[in-house]
Write a structure and sequence with these properties.
This protein is α+β, with helices and mostly antiparallel strands and 182 residues long. The protein has a single domain, classed as Umud Fragment, subunit A (Ribbon). The protein is built from two helices and twelve strands. The strands form two sheets. Strands 1, 2, 3, 4, 9, 10, 11 and 12 form an eight-stranded antiparallel sheet that branches. It has a four-stranded antiparallel sheet with strand order 7-6-5-8, with no helix packed on it. The longest helix has 28 residues.
Length: 182
C-alpha cells in the first residue's frame, strides 16, 4: 500500500511564500521599532561601573521613561560618549541641570548635601577635589561607580541630555546574576 501525497501547485507555494514574507517583514519592523523606541540590550565592557556592573554582563535599558519624566541623580544610564558619539557608555548620574556639584575627598556633594552612595566600594573610591561647579541647563554630570577606573565627566565634561538614551533597568546575563538595577 502506497501513500499518495497531494500535488501542491506552484500558485499555492507562491501564495504561502508571499504571506510568510509579509509576516517576517511585519515582525522585523515591530522589532526595529521596539529596539529604537522602547528597550535595548547592551554588553558591559570594562570595569568603570564595578561593583554594580562587571565586564561581560548584559543589561536592558528602557528608552521610554525619560520622554515623560526627568533624569535623576543616581540613575544608571546609557549615553553616547561625548567626544565620539558613535560609542555608548554606561554611567551613573551624579548631578542634574542647575545643580551645584562639589567633590570633597572623593565624596560627591550636590547642592550642599553629600550623596549617600551605598553602591560604591570604598576601595574603588577616588579621593580628588572638584568644584564647586554648576551643571549647565540641559546637561548632566556622570561618573562610573569604580571611581579610580572610570573615564567620565571628570575627563570629558558635561553630557548633553540628548546624549542620554536610556535608563538601565535589568541585568540579564549571566543568568545567575539576573537582577533589577537601582
Amino acid at each position: 500500500m502506497s501513500l499518495k501525497l497531494p500535488q501542491i501547485s506552484r500558485e499555492i507555494i507562491l501564495k504561502h511564500t508571499k504571506e510568510l514574507g509579509r509576516e517576517i517583514f511585519v515582525i522585523g519592523m515591530a522589532m526595529l521599532l521596539f529596539i529604537t523606541f522602547v528597550m535595548q540590550t547592551y554588553a558591559i565592557e570594562g570595569s568603570s561601573m564595578e561593583p554594580t556592573l562587571q565586564s561581560g554582563q548584559r543589561v536592558i535599558a528602557e528608552k521610554v521613561s525619560y520622554r515623560f519624566q526627568t533624569i535623576e541623580t543616581g540613575d544608571v544610564v546609557i549615553l553616547f560618549f561625548p567626544p565620539e558619539p558613535t560609542k555608548t557608555f554606561v554611567k551613573r548620574v551624579l548631578a542634574c541641570p542647575d545643580d551645584v556639584l562639589e567633590i570633597n575627598n572623593g565624596i560627591p556633594v550636590v547642592n550642599g548635601t553629600p550623596l549617600t552612595e551605598e553602591y560604591i566600594d570604598p576601595t574603588l573610591r577616588s579621593y580628588e577635589k572638584i568644584g564647586p561647579i554648576r551643571v549647565p541647563a540641559g546637561y548632566y554630570f556622570v561618573m562610573g561607580d569604580h571611581r579610580n577606573a572610570s573615564y567620565d565627566s571628570r575627563h570629558f565634561g558635561f553630557v548633553p541630555q540628548k546624549y542620554i538614551t536610556g535608563r538601565v533597568v535589568f541585568r540579564i546575563w549571566p543568568l545567575s546574576e539576573i537582577s533589577i538595577i537601582e
